[in-house]
């Protein structure tokens, strides 16, 4: 208590200043003291809670924001040291206490970092980064964050370099750290180049400034890259570093070295070929002196794309793999989906894409996922005959794939083919019962619109035996719904009775029947009780909602018996398991008081 009183007394000078300069009223100052007192007591408990510290910190930050707004409103900018400075110190102290207790909470550290950045507490932030990295040295992203702050905010390349080198001691094979270190060295070189240029422009003697030509040309970044290339395997890192180098206009030699390394070490990697092909798009642009007409631009783009495709064609011969074809097709689809006003160019792109799809298929190297895109493209282009052929070929290549069969059937239904039933039979024969639900759902939905009620009902009955027990639950719900739509109440009652002993069920199956009964003009409570009792037999121990619905029904139905509610409640308490009992009791209480 004495410690808390001392802390509250320490607040008095700043609160007096707030009142004296007119930022806060006396009443507001008292409210702040009361709130601060309550928050102080919470963080002085024997068992500390992180939430209490977070609430206290958030309150102080809100107070700072309010003071900032009040200052802007009345145009008063003095006494910052007496007011804001003491609040900032208190927030830092609270963060330090919380972090001291919960060192492993990275989010708490990051909140402190964000606070320091927001209030420009550079000296404090440097300490926070130092402490955080001492404890969380196993997290590369924190090292990168600290180094970026040193480089971009503190403008200290030396400190950033020192942090990256320390990070590499802990993470000697981390691609991200090497990539960011590489970027930092290039940024440092660019910064020095700009400085030198500015001095030369101002005709200042460069004698006292030591600008090394090697650093200016990015030699340090080259050393970083070479060091990383020895430790990190994989084409992705080389491509990432190359994309960073391309952002700087003095790295042509460095880019050339990375590219040569890429081609020599990863000649068989699809990503290398993909990069080399896409490079052709950026090369050979029109001279800016020429006045480019629309026709010239289209011609130029066509030539570039043809050069890209020539590289891709060479790639699929050199590396005939699924991934290589996937890269080629992805490129073609990207170009096809780009907007253009030239119909001729769009047509060329379409023809090229369809041709590549066909070649990949003939090589038996077209991945399953890309068949769907091929079919969509064919249907969009109204090439229905080819779409039917492709769909059939897809199911031959992937005869156990439900998606392929579904795709083929959808195409046949869309084109109103005569062999849909035959294809459905073949599909359910090929695909094992597990996962066949999608096909049966599609079949019965199609049958509803094209076949007689008798045929559709026979199909529904067949689907119940053909699907596995878990999937048959969905088919039962669909069967019940269709029976009501096609044959009315009498029909659905017969179907429900026939399915009642054919487990398993879902709760929605019973709820659907209860809803159908309630929609009838002569809704009989006797029938509702039967449905509820059947549902409780299956789900009475695992669902508290059905018990509450049953009680509500007895209370609200004209022929209900409210005196039954007591026995239903007693049965629910006996049957429900675990936390469901507590949930049921609380909801039942709300129901009794009229709040549910």
From TrEMBL:
Residues 306-576 form the U3 small nucleolar RNA-associated protein 6 homolog C-terminal domain. InterPro entries: HAT, TPR-like_helical_dom_sf, Utp6, UTP6_C, UTP6_N. Residues 8-90 form the U3 small nucleolar RNA-associated protein 6 N-terminal domain. Its main location: nucleus. The keyword Magnesium does not apply. Pfam families: U3_assoc_6 (PF08640), UTP6_C (PF24892). It is found in: Nucleus, Nucleolus. It comes from the Eukaryota. GO terms for cellular component: Pwp2p-containing subcomplex of 90S preribosome; small-subunit processome. Transmembrane segments: none annotated. The keyword Nucleus applies. Keywords: Nucleus, Repeat, rRNA processing. GO terms for biological process: maturation of SSU-rRNA from tricistronic rRNA transcript (SSU-rRNA, 5.8S rRNA, LSU-rRNA). GO terms for molecular function: snoRNA binding. Belongs to the UTP6 family. This is UTP6 protein. It comes from Rhinopomastus cyanomelas (Common scimitarbill).
């Amino acid at each position: 208590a004495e410690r808390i009183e001392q802390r509250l007394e320490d607040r008095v000078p700043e609160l007096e200043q707030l009142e004296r300069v007119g930022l806060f009223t006396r009443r507001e100052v008292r409210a702040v003291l009361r709130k601060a007192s309550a928050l102080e007591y919470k963080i002085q408990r024997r068992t500390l809670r992180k939430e209490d510290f977070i609430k206290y910190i958030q309150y102080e930050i809100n107070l700072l924001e309010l003071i900032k707004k009040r200052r802007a409103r009345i145009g008063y900018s003095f006494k910052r040291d007496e007011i804001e400075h003491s609040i900032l110190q208190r927030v830092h102290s609270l963060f330090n206490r919380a972090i001291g207790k919960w060192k492993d909470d990275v989010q708490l550290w990051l909140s402190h970092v964000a606070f320091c950045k927001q209030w420009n507490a550079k000296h404090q932030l440097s300490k926070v980064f130092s402490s955080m990295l001492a404890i969380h040295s196993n997290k590369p992203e924190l090292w990168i964050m600290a180094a970026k702050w040193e480089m971009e905010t503190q403008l200290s390349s030396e400190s950033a370099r020192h942090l990256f080198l320390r990070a590499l001691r802990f993470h000697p094979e981390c691609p991200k750290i090497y990539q960011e270190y590489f970027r930092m060295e290039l940024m440092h070189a660019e910064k020095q180049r700009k400085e030198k240029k500015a001095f030369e422009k101002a005709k200042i003697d460069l004698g006292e400034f030591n600008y090394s030509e090697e650093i200016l040309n990015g030699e340090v970044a080259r050393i970083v890259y070479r060091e990383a290339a020895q430790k990190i395997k994989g084409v992705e890192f080389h491509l990432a570093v190359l994309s960073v180098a391309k952002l700087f206009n003095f790295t042509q030699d460095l880019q050339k070295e990375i590219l040569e390394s890429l081609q020599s070490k990863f000649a068989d990697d699809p990503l290398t070929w993909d990069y080399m092909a896409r490079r052709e798009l950026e090369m050979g642009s029109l001279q800016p002196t020429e006045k480019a007409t629309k026709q010239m631009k289209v011609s130029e783009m066509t030539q570039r794309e043809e050069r890209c495709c020539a590289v891709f064609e060479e790639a699929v011969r050199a590396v005939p793999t699924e991934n290589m074809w996937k890269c080629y097709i992805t490129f073609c689809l990207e170009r096809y989906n780009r907007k253009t006003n030239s119909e001729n160019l769009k047509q060329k792109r379409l023809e090229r894409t369809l041709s590549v799809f066909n070649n990949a298929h003939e090589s038996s190297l077209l991945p399953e996922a890309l068949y769907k895109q091929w079919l969509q493209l064919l249907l969009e282009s109204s090439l229905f005959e080819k779409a039917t052929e492709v769909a059939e070929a897809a199911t031959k290549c992937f005869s156990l794939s439900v998606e392929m069969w579904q795709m083929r059937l959808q195409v046949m239904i869309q084109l109103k083919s005569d062999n849909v039933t035959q294809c459905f039979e073949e599909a359910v024969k090929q695909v094992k019962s597990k996962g066949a639900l999608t096909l049966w759902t599609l079949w019965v939905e199609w049958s509803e619109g094209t076949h007689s009620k008798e045929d559709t009902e026979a199909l529904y009955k067949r689907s119940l035996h053909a699907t596995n027990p878990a999937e048959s639950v969905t088919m039962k719900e669909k069967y019940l719904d269709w029976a009501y739509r096609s044959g009315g109440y009498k029909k659905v009652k017969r179907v429900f009775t026939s399915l009642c002993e054919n487990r398993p069920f879902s709760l929605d199956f019973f709820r659907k029947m209860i809803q159908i009964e309630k929609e009838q003009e002569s809704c009989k409570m006797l029938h509702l009780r039967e449905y509820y009792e059947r549902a409780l037999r299956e789900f009475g121990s695992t669902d508290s909602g059905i018990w509450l619905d049953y009680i509500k029904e007895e209370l609200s139905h004209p022929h209900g018996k409210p005196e039954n509610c007591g026995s239903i409640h007693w049965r629910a308490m006996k049957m429900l398991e675990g936390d469901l009992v507590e949930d049921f009791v609380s909801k039942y209480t709300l129901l009794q008081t009229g709040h549910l």
